[in-house]
Structure formats: C-alpha cells, structure tokens
Design goal:
Elements (H helix, E strand, L loop, with lengths): L4 H22 L3 E2 L3 H7 L7 E10 L5 E10 L3 E11 L10 H10 L3 E7 L7 H7 L5 E5 L1 H9 L4
Parallel strand pairs: 1-2, 4-5, 5-6
Antiparallel strand pairs: 2-3, 3-4
Length: 155
C-alpha cells in the first residue's frame, strides 16, 4: 500500500530525528523520559542528558513551542541546547515555514542548532536559513556537517 505524501514526510523526518538521537546516545547523553521535569531539573544534572519533544516556551503566536531535542551537558551546554531536525525530500511548501521557525528561535532563551537536509527545499531556502545564523541560531548543518561537528568533539 502506498503511503500518502504526508506519511512519507513524517517517516523520513523521523529517520533524521533517529540519526540525531543515535549521535546523542553515542556521545554519552542519557535520555530523560520525564520531559516536563527536564527543563526545570536539567541544570542540576551532573551528566550529559537530553529529552525529546520538549515544551521550551511559546511561539511568536503565543502557542506552545516544542523542540525536537533539548540537551544539557554540564561543561559544553550548561544552559541547554536545542537541536531541531527539518527534512524535506520532495518539493513543497515546508520551506515556507523556515522564517516562522527562525523567528521562534530568536525569541527563545535557548541556543539552537538546525539540522536541515533532504534537498527538496526551494532554491534559496537553505541559503536564506543559513544566513540567519545569529542570536540563538548557532549553526545550520546538513547531516554530514552535523556528523563532522560531532566527530570534532563539539557536542
């Protein structure tokens, strides 16, 4: 049975999230299941930890802002780091959400890394979002760049 375009997009996006999560675990981060308590307790942790699908504040529209990953490392990320995954394999309108995403990052208290891949975004969309690296948006990586950054010991 063929998958709908939306179901296929969710599947491929989930694969990117699993890639990121694998790297977190491989780098010694422990997943904390209680994502509600993670935000308030993370600064008291002594070990690298993370939670997924965490409420980290409000969007520019006042709705709940949920991140893909929020991680804590007592030495490298003591204030927390958000990692967001955006996969777009097929042409569509998903890249029109990039400005909304960037504005939410700018209004967030957390520094953020965006892992963007798939090659299906419109010409100029990746270039534009990479040009927005300022304030809390620290890096925009594709999967290979993210892996190299991790391999250099940055996580």
């Amino acid at each position: 049975m063929a998958r709908s375009q939306g179901a296929q997009a969710n599947l491929t996006g989930n694969r990117l999230e699993r890639f990121i999560e694998y790297n977190l675990v491989d780098c010694g981060f422990t997943k904390i299941a209680d994502k509600k308590a993670f935000v308030s307790a993370m600064r008291s942790f002594s070990e690298p930890s993370y939670a997924s699908q965490v409420h980290i504040g409000h969007t520019i529209y006042g709705t709940n802002l949920i991140c893909d990953f929020l991680l804590f490392h007592p030495h490298t990320w003591p204030e927390g780091l958000v990692i967001e995954a955006k996969w777009q394999q097929e042409p569509g309108t998903v890249d029109e959400k990039y400005p909304y995403f960037v504005m939410n990052i700018f209004s967030s208290e957390y520094r953020t890394i965006l892992v963007l891949d798939g090659g299906g975004y419109r010409e100029g969309a990746e270039r534009w979002v990479r040009s927005m690296r300022k304030q809390n948006l620290l890096y925009v990586f594709n999967m290979a760049e993210f892996q190299r950054w991790i391999n250099q010991g940055n996580l």
